[in-house]
Amino acid sequence: MKSRRIRLAAVALFVGGGLCAALMAEACLKVIAATPLWRVLPVIEPILGQPDPQTGYAFTPGVSGIWVRENRARVQITELGLRGPQGITQAKAPGTVRIALLGDSVTEALQVEYAASFGALLQARLNHGGSAGTEVINLAMSGNGPLRQLMRLEQRGYSFDPDIVLSVTSPFDFLSGELRDDRLNPAYVPDGSGGWMRGYAFRKRFSVRQADTLAGRVFLDAVQRFDLVRLLYLRSRDPLSKLMGIEASARAPASSPVVADTCFTADLRNLQRLWQNHEPAQDWQVTGKFFDELAASRAGRPVKLVYALRDLPMPPARCASQRAQRAAVIDTIEDALATRQIGFIDLEKQLVDIVGVDGSADLRVLRGFGLQIGQGHLNHEGHRRYAEVLQTAVAELIGR
Amino acid sequence: MPFNSLAFLILLTTSWLLVVWLRRPAYALIVASLVFYLFAGPLDTTVFLLTVGLNWLIQLFIMRPRWRITAAVLLNIGLIFAFKYKNLLFGGGMAGSYTDTGLPLGISFYCFQALAYHIDVIRHQAAPARSFASFFLFKSFFPQLVAGPIVRAPQFLPQIERLFSGNRRRLRLIAYGLVLCLLGLFKKVVLADSLAPIVDEIFVASPESAYQAWLGAVLFAFQIYFDFSGYSDIAIGAAYLLGLRLPLNFLTPYMSTGPRDFWQRWHISLSTWIRDYLYIPLGGGRGGWLRAAAVLVGSMALAGLWHGANGTFVIWGAGWGIYILICRSLRDRVMLPLALRWPLHMAIVVMLWVFFRSPSFGFALDYLTVMLDVTAWTVPVGGISPILSGIGIAGLFLLHAAEYRLNRRSTLFVLRRWNGPFLWGLCIGLSLLLILLPSSNANPFIYFRF
Hints:
The complex is a heterodimer of chains A (400) and B (450). Chain A has 400 residues and is of the alpha/beta class. Chain A is built from 14 helices and 11 strands.
């Protein structure tokens, strides 16, 4: 009996030690996050959103943290559930021009502080010289393809009474197939009569079903509030091989030579197939459906829709035929948007002109941080250049 | 299998349980060591098993000391040469440079260990292993297999033999072992891996100013120290948990005030190996000044070459040799006060690390030129501010000083007093959380590359 008690006490002490370890680790992570040490020492990346039955995923208002991927930056979601700017109100002040900025992770810009993102820089540029009164509301979210952008605009964007809706999107989003895949996010599905309608298969997912239950809310609160819970949750989603450290032990396979497509022939051929030959047929149908719905979403509101296509590759001058091919694709896109009264900005071409380079390949310096320059999301210079290009286009629209 | 992985934690826990439960845990440790090494891949495992087997055959069949030494040198140095240095002589790239990972894991360590074993047995400083199993475990004991400390037969082999004897063991140093593992993980995961991206960025892009160059070099000095001493701490701690004692490999080297002092604190198992099996047999400090100088600089250059087939490592080693030589020559004539001696010594240590970290000799010279150009003391745009980096570096030195206090015998008494389930739970919990901490990129232990 006595030895059993001793054994139980030992187990209790062991568990107590483990709990103390957890408390110490949580305290240390909080101290790191609150001091300049966050720039160097390990921090746990934040979970900024939660499952949403309408759009798949939405920001949690007021949540904040330190973004660690690619570049470290403090990020905070506004009380209205936006990437920024902080302090914006739902109601628009008289005389204010509001621009609703739509996009994916490039526009969301978690890799830099909000003030350095092109949304904030665009607002600063437009208000430069005392002509305050323009607000750029950043509605972008990671992974937001065209349809999720539209749904976010319908759900949240129009409630801000914007004068301009500016979407910064990649043309390859229409080719990736995600517009037709509703397993993770809303997408178009066949309506049974040869047309397409919005599908919500993702609502069957456990995370979406549980999001609004008490257990789901408690779990989400714990994950967002406590670094340690978040650490365990994030690591539990890693593949077992990574968790066990097997990936780190394995040797990197010998690299095979990759022939760079410096004229972007394949990319342009795919875009030409979609926009000019209307192939693959299903992609073309949902693309048309999407732009029809985007145009119709205004529903009589006096709002200008502008589509800024980024990453539509500009071949160097020596690739004359590919440049001509690109120009033809751009004309087709512009016409398709114009018939729906949607403005168009060829972001890539204007970037090439402003930076003064020969083609898209030279714009890689606008992406990536540190040793990863050339790959990933926009860096500080990239955001500055994006803002520069968009300012010119938007200033024309609002007459500044 | 990296030490900072869940796989290692599971292997270590399983081995510990087997050591506690089994009367003769040696065979379980052999299996654990094989599992550990199998993670490196089939080629590495085959090379390792062949090396152990051939070294055993040398002991078994070559009786004449001179021939045995010759065979051991030919086999072990030949293997290191074949994998590490052939490109240096015959061309074909920089195999063994700082970033190279194509070597069989830990080859430099286990070949040196095998060579030392043969020499010690021939000198009658150690009894030969009683069986192939004990020889195999002596060579393959997994905590020290891939990056040392380089264990010696006189100290380690008797401990291994005891694992086969069936005598009851008392694992009295569990708390000390766990604390060492925790300290090592902290050094590696929190400190070394956090410094790595800053250092890499400065060294890959070349520094823009003297400030940045010094920052990169000082941070690298700490990165490599925390990385390697962290590994050694885990190795020693894990061995304590399994009832074995490995030699100390680091003793707060940046608290040293001169080059000799430094090498008595840095990678002690390698520096004593070089001293006992290379420097002294070559003549040591005997003979004329020129001969003694040549032996010293040559031994240190070879110690540098051990790290890889790159001229930068040789220059690094030779640089240390020259530095020791200069200090030895000035010993009786110039005696700087400690307040001057330590900063000057640290500046030289940091400058020598530049050779170690640089991909080529030319790069190192350019780097040193920027370091010494005090007119270009500007902070690059977007760089870390001098105040912040000054506080950071001061913090690193303070941590180093705190470690100096931790290394004292009194710590052992304190830990023995606290030894119990609470401390075990605390250490295991913290270790587990450190292993789970996310890392932005895979940072294998630096000395795994050698």
